[in-house]
Amino acid sequence: MTFETEVIWLDEHRAVTLAELVEVSGLTERELLELVRAGVIPAREAPGAQYTFSARVVTVARTACRLRDDLELDVHGVGVALRLLERVSDLEAEIARLRAQLPHR
Amino acid sequence: MKYTDYYAALGVERGASAEDIKKAYRRLAQKYHPDVSKEPDAEAKFKEVAEAYGTLKDPEKRAAYDALGSRPQGEEFRPPPDWSRQHGGNEAYSFDDVDFADLFSRFGGRGGGGFDGGRMEIPGQDFEVPVEISIEDAFQGTTLELNLSLTERDPSGQVRRVPHPVKARIAPGAVDGQRLRLPGKGGKGANGGRDGDLYLDISLKPHRIYRATDHDLYLDLPLTPAEAALGASVEVPTPAGAVNLKIPAGTSSGQKMRLGGRGLPKPRGGAGDLFAVAQIVVPSSLTDRERELYRELGEKAANPRRHLAEGA
Q: Do A59 and B201 touch (CB under 8 A)?
């Protein structure tokens, strides 16, 4: 049977707590805090358990978990990979933005 | 079911050591991991490699796999009748609706929770699915009907594929890169574990006339030389319907005219803009009269390349 389901927008208007991020990402709290300290996952508020995050980082944290498990990386390796992936994604967005402005012909 | 040659997937010999299997996996995972790879078919390749490694890295699973013998890749086969029992499985295992990969999911390793009745909580699998929607869908909102397939485990540990239809209402405003989470819509949890989540990664399909960037839209607006020079009022399509746009006199090709709030709606109110990019279109063939008029215009026109000459 199919029925309509709740849809949560993972955007900056929604905040997630550290505990929620641990649950949905599969990373440990320690790993997450390490990525926050390294500036790879941006946190919103005071340190420690008070951290909240934009729901946008949910997919970043899940990617981190996949990289850790599938490529057997430690948290520092994951941090480097995430930084590079973010740069690639920013550049791709910039290219897409510029392409949209170019005429078709 | 079809036989999968896991050794071939990793490019190692059947007698390869655990260390060689690990090295081969790491090399291929770096190359094909879908989060980092731009190789064509990276996702499918990585899945094959991960499936092979998942079985061969675990001694118990590898022994069960080896006991199936060596067969050509893709050969149709069924495990021998006593195979499941010999490898610690359930005698009643039917192998109907079972994928080759599912055969080994019951043995050893973490998160097995199979026939030996582990009462450990096992969370359901999360899924991430890319979804393409049209610009019209992003404008109006849409209802997605996805036909996914999940692996489900019955109480005896038997694993099978089941269809998993999901219907989700996407409100207006989802654009490229928007991620959505559908809690509990992934795989079923076992022994009281939570159900998995479904994540949708939205992208917009290319459109015949609009090009989207975030919530802004761009479209090429062809103008005649006379409309561009003298100004005009022309009809411009927008997702909400056509509007009239006043073209100022002296418009050049490439000039952008902004129609504020005529782009895609934002999920929390407001909307992006629509930019009409002027494109002066010159007729490819002229009548005698037109040629005469253009010649006359040309004689009176200022030189638009004066600044190039000054730079020389």
A: yes
Rg of the Cα atoms in chain A: 16
Contact residues, chain B, for A67 at CB < 8 Å: 33, 35-36
| Digit-coded pLDDT (tens) for B146-191 | 998 887 776 666 777 888 899 999 999 999 999 999 999 988 887 8
| Residue B140 contacts residue B174 (beta carbons within 8 Å) | no
Q: Which residue in chain B has the smallest CA separation from A5? A: B168
- pLDDT 10s digits, B85-109: 777 665 555 666 677 877 776 665 4
pLDDT in tens, B201-260: 999 999 999 999 999 999 999 999 999 999 999 999 999 999 999 999 999 999 999 999
How far away is chain B from the Cα of A13, in angstroms, using its nearest Cα? Answer: 8
> Is the pLDDT reported for residue B279 higher than 80?
yes
Q: Tell me the backbone φ, ψ of residue A100, rounded to 5 degrees.
A: -60, -30
Residue owning tokens 């199919």: A2
CA distance B263 to B160: 46
Question: Could you report the per-residue pLDDT of B28-60, keeping only the tens digit for each?
Answer: 999 999 999 988 899 999 999 999 999 999 998
A23: left (phi over 0), alpha (psi -120 to 50) or beta: alpha
With beta carbons under 8 A apart, name residues in chain A contacting B166: 2, 5
- The minimal CB distance from A9 to the residues B128, B143, B267 is found for B267
* A93 touches B at CB < 8 Å: yes
| Interface membership of B218 toward A (CB under 8 Å) | yes
Q: Which residues in chain B have their CB less than 8 angstroms from residue A101's CB?
A: 211, 213, 218, 256, 275, 277
- Which residues in B lie closer than 8 A to residue A82 (C-beta atoms)? none
Region for B288 from its dihedrals, namely left if φ exceeds 0, alpha if ψ lies in -120 to 50, beta otherwise: alpha
Q: What is the ipTM of this complex?
A: 0.88
